[in-house]
Fold each of these.
Amino acid sequence: MQRNTAKHFLFALFAFLIAFSVHAEKLPNIMILATGGTIAGSGATSTTTVGYTAATVGVQQLINAVPELAKISNVTGEQVFQIASESMTNEHWLTLGKRVNVLLAQPNVDGIVITHGTDTLEETAYFLNLVVKSRKPVVLVGAMRPGTALSADGPINLYNAVLIAGSQEAIGKGVLVALGDQIHGARDVTKTNTSTPDSFKTPELGMLGYVQGPKAFFYHSTTRKHTVDSEFDISNLSALPQVDIVYGYANMNSVALNAFIAAGAKGIIHAGTGDGSVAAKVKPDLAAARKNGTVIVRASRVGNGILARNGEANDDELDFVVADTLSPQKARILLMLGMTKTSNTKELQRMFYTY
Ligand code: SIN
């Protein structure tokens, strides 16, 4: 009788150990690359939800603040930068993109989460969407409130991002953005509010899904090319061509345009009013800039809609490119990458209808 009990006990112990090791093996290996931002920020008091300092807390502290991560993944942290994202530069993007590609080429990395300030999060996400050479998930995450605030959103956003990065459903979907229990695609997501936690939206074109409980639910995916289907390769690049944005407004003049060109801009994104209209006062200077070799892309400051080619300007005659539905800040990224390959405006226009 006693021997039987011992046997049962040993059997149960083995079964538990096998189940435990199978479970442990199944957890995805997720790298968290930290770059700073409010998610790594701290304020003077628990009610400091604005006027705090971004980028003060290191990656290990971010991970330690969410012990639940250990139940869904094997996370490893790496501090890539520690900056507020308004100071993100092309050089930061090249460094980050190359690091992501190196890590994703390793068989023991299943996905990457990048913690990032929300101000330019959508730009970094779109840049990576065009240069990452892997189908493995890459998820950008930020927070609208610092970790010291009441109802800080960073910990749950980080948990959701790690969950998405480890999920089979996220594979091949392009670079994703996780905030407020929602999943957005890098191309179309934008920050829509200066300070509220529900700031990130994909207006009109639509977000991709939700995180609920322990699962990522997808409903849409982008039809535009990205990641492994992209033609852009940054592996040998140490800089990107200078492209600047000229903003349209009533009473606009050409001072900023001419200053950017004098400073060496190879491309200009004209963030025009309405459907990308160009003020009569500015049009001759924009046309002259193109004649002198600067690539001009007409975009819109409106935030939604397709920019009509040959609509508000005769783009064929002026040899301008139009930005399709891309915001000016994302058009800048595509033009920079496009110009690493060509200055041919027909080719560049093809890229704007492809990515
Ligand atoms: C930043 O973008 O680094 C500051 C703002 C934020 O993360 O919400």
Amino acid sequence: MSIKITWLGHSAFKLEAEGHTILLDPFLTGNPLAAAKPEDLNPEIIFLSHAHGDHLGDTVDIAKRTGALVVSNAEICGWLGTHGVENTHGMNTGGGYDFGFVHCKLTVAHHSSSFPDGSYGGNPNGFILTIAGKRLYYAGDTSLFSDMRLIGDQVIDLAFLPIGDNFTMGPEDSLRAINYIRPRSVIPMHYKTWPPIDQDASEWGNAVNNETTAQPIVLDPGASHVLI
Ligand code: NI
Ligand code: MN
């Protein structure tokens, strides 16, 4: 069983597995790296890590058009409900739930979370997604934290980690994170979108090869990796 992972720019990804489509943090409108139009995406589930505009993105429009289930924390699901998105599933940190073809557990993320309109977004999260026999860790926006070791104890096939610095961990801390998480492979995110988070991903990839046991997978916006 395999998963096709497509980077849509910033922290937005499309996952396709066993005929199902998932979106992670679908920020496309206003994203200089956006590699898809919101109207061309037809997910069954959208996982949303926190309320910031560069993650919430086009969630409301996509969910309203497709009826996709939006999975996030309780506060975000409540806000979505007042903005016309009724098909939501609220969770909280440490909780897991089986959505049939994918299991999701919310992890801690050290960051903040408020909506573009200023309302409270609850605590930010990451996700551990188990799908097609693989376990993925999507860190969301976060600093490095030592409990990433505990996430690594769950055996991670692939990790999505921010490397942009400034708003999240940067390249150096991401190497320490990789050594805590010990994934088979790692995809960088939350970089290159704007000048404050510009990073050289090929240099980062060399450092991952030299200093960790993980395989770096550096995608261009719109490019895919098939995880086997
Ligand atoms: Ni954020
Ligand atoms: Mn962000």
